[in-house]
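quick one before i forget lol
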Amino acid sequence: MHTITTDRVASSSLRLSNRHSEDGIDRTEHFVGAMKLSIRIICALLFVHLCFAAPNSNRYDDEDSRENSIAAVEQGKQVHQFDLLIFTQRWPITACYEWRETGKEHICGLPTPATVWTIHGIWPTKLNTIGPAFCNKSAIFDVSQLSPIEPQLEAHWVNVEKNKPDDSLWEHEWLKHGTCAAEAIEQLNTEAKYFGQGLSWLEQHSVSAAFATNGDIKPGFNYSLPTLNKALYDYYGKNVAIECFFDRKTHQQFLNEVRICFDKQLQSADCDGIVGLERIVLPNSRVGTVISNCNAAKPIFYPDAVPKKQEKKEEDEEEVSQSDRDVVYETVYEISDGKTEIEVILV
């Protein structure tokens, strides 16, 4: 009897223990299930908030500081960011010489008269970055849109590369640079407006006028970088950029381009932040610095004619050492500052 009672008690205790264990497992599973459901609900609410919540009004406040490769989105359209418009004028004689010297088959041609500054282009530019460029990949250049101003373009927006079609420079400038300006500036949003603005700026801001008004700088002489910069700064009232072409054969530098900058409201601006044209310190200069790629320690030749092709030197010809060239450069520099009418072409 005692044994049977003890067995029954043990059996009852075991069943009770199993029941408590099962209840514990059920409660744990219920808790885990509730937690999973809560997490799903929170994730779903967060997803809905991110997808449908109104955008922050400050979302694009820092767009202007982004790199060229990142575009803003405005009304569903991609807009390539830039800070300045660089209006580039070039000296066609240097441009012609540079083209001829960079390819054996290159033939250059000059406008009539040749001694006038012409337009290279209007280039939207992000500070300290190259570009943007080719902003509309589907754009097609239509020269017929330029018919009313084509005679002026032929005279002032000259293609010196005679190996190419006459309008190839216009096509290149519009597709590479004009399409980017057209995205952001209404006054430049068609071919006619873009090229017309270039002609207007040339008339108002000609480098020829700047050199004639300040410093009486004429082709055919060498000038120092401070002299050129002073004439341009005094005329424009802004820091422009001066670009030189370096002739590897003669180790001479030629005045090539002058770049004048405008903001997106088409108002004149300083040309700081142009890649490849950094500020150079000019000792004993009133301006102090100049934006240029030219060597400030050497003279800059402002040519009045395209230099003649030089004959190949004989193998036994004595080579001119670099030190000799430096002496010749210094001599030319002194002569040019005195404006003695001597044309010197180093060989």
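fyi DSSP finds eight helices and eleven strands in the chain.
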